[in-house]
Amino acid sequence: MRIKIPRCALLKISLIYALSGIVITLCLDQDRVLCHLQDPIKGITLVFSLVYYFFFCRKMMSLQRIFSSTTIIVGLFISVDYGLCDQFRCRGQEVSGHTTTMRGSWGVKAIWTFVYVGALAAFAMFFTLLEAHYTTEQQNMCQIMASQQNSFLYTVSRLVSSRDIRRRGSEEEGGRLLHVTDPDPTIKPKHIPKPPILETLFYIHLIAFFAILSMSWIDTLPGIGRGLSPAELYRVVEHGLMCHFKNSDNCSNISTRGWIFLIAYIIFSISVLNFLSISESAVFTVATATVSLPLSVIWWSIYKMDVHGRFITWSPGVTGELICALLGLPVVLLGLGLLVRSHFHDTQPCYLTMQPPDVQCESSQR
């Protein structure tokens, strides 16, 4: 199998993915981050994706996309607002005040919460780095046209739509905000094939697997990490693998949950990378994934995990989390719909959204 992404870039992407997974696992282990904060804080991943876009991506984001992404963020905040404040309820379960205070001081939990946010920032960076390797010849054509001398004036006016730019450019004589020329027919767009989905996922998870194994036995800080010796690590991994094929008392029903999680994770990984390859936008990909946050709140308002029976049971109830999720979900879907519309509008070929000066003059005279 051939790696289409450069090895150094693939190694960096995989290590960031492994680091985010390790830190997130450490934060969620033993409820170092309060249980009612674990899911709502995940919405900040979209904020980090937007920040990375403005700092690292060379493409300009239209006002429509900015407004759509902001609408999704507002909808997410409405959906998880009640859960952020209710520390006595987590994923459909009632949590006693004694349980929340016996697992560490508030200062330690605050530190772990900030570490958790940093891990989510690394997870958002993973998609941003992958986005750089999934570009089309259309965007390359845009970059070639933009690099032609005296073709464009890079001003803040690029943030507005092309229709407004053409209108204002035709109205202002001698001092147009945007000077448009025909693309040079001799310049051919450079076709760069996209990396294969399955091979890319295979190498990312292969590198991340060995990175996790190399760090899982290291006791990085006192009381943090597993601190396992190589022999103990081998026994733990062997026991975990065997529990996927047998249902014993010390396996905690892993044979049922493990396979469900594995199948769901494989489907999610392939789907999200395919979506990133099609949309070519990390912000769009993360925004679509964040729809699961209000849906998960609705799910845990209808079902409840039976701790002793280790199964999910039907237990519907009207709660504050359910009301907020039902109010925020339409806002999230509205923002996602606007983002889809603006995405298809912005991904049209560049030369179709631009007209030569003579066409602009004719349209202005009419």
TrEMBL record:
Which species is listed as the source?
Bombus impatiens (Bumblebee)
Membrane topology field? Multi-pass membrane protein
**Gene, per the UniProt record:** LOC100749346
GO CC, one annotated term: membrane
What name is this protein filed under? Uncharacterized protein LOC100749346
Q: Which PANTHER family match?
A: PROTEIN CLT2, CHLOROPLASTIC
Compartments it resides in: Membrane
Alphabetized, the UniProt keywords read: Membrane, Transmembrane, Transmembrane helix, Transport
Show the stretches that span the lipid bilayer. 9-28, 40-57, 66-84, 110-130, 200-218, 258-276, 283-302, 322-340
Hey, which family's this protein in?
A: Belongs to the CRT-like transporter family.
Q: Give the InterPro entries listed for this entry.
A: CRT-like (IPR013936)
